[in-house]
Amino acid sequence: MISPEVLRRYPVFSFLDTDQLREISMITEEVDLKKGEILFKTDESANTCYLLLTGGIELRYVVVDEINPELRKEFVIGIINPGDFLGISAAVEPNRYTSTAIAMGDCRLLQIDGIALRALCNQDQLLNCGLQGMLARTAVDRLHSTRIQLAAATTPS
Q: Which stretches of 4-129 are assigned E, i.e. beta strand?
C-alpha cells in the first residue's frame, strides 16, 4: 500500500476523488526494475498495471511471418516515460499484454493489482468510467505514436 497523496501527484489519476484515491492506494505498491529486466511479455495474462515513476521502458512487439514462422522481427513500438501508465491490458478484456515491456535503465514504478482494480470498477461505476476514459486516451496516444513510426519506416528515402 502507498499513500493516496502519492497517486494525487500524477495527472493520470486526476479523475479520482478522495475515496477512490484511497481505494486505489490500498492495491498499489512501489516496485523497482533493473536495466534489461522484463516487466511483462506479449500475450501473458495481464493482472497488473503500472505507472512509471523514474527511468524508461521500451515496449516491443515481435512480428512472425505466417508462412515461415522462423522469420521474426522485433520492433520497438513505444517508449514509456515517467508519469506514463502502462500495462493497460490489465483493465481491458481479454486481459492479455499486447507487447513486451523492458527496462531501459533502472526504474521505479507503482504497481497496481489489476484483478483488485477490476473488482473496484465493478463496484464503482464512476471509477470505471473515469478509468476507461484514461485508458482510452492512453491507447489512442500509443496508436498515434505507432502510426507515426510506421509512416517513417515506410517512407522512401
A: 28-33, 38-40, 48-54, 57-64, 72-80, 85-86, 100-103, 107-113
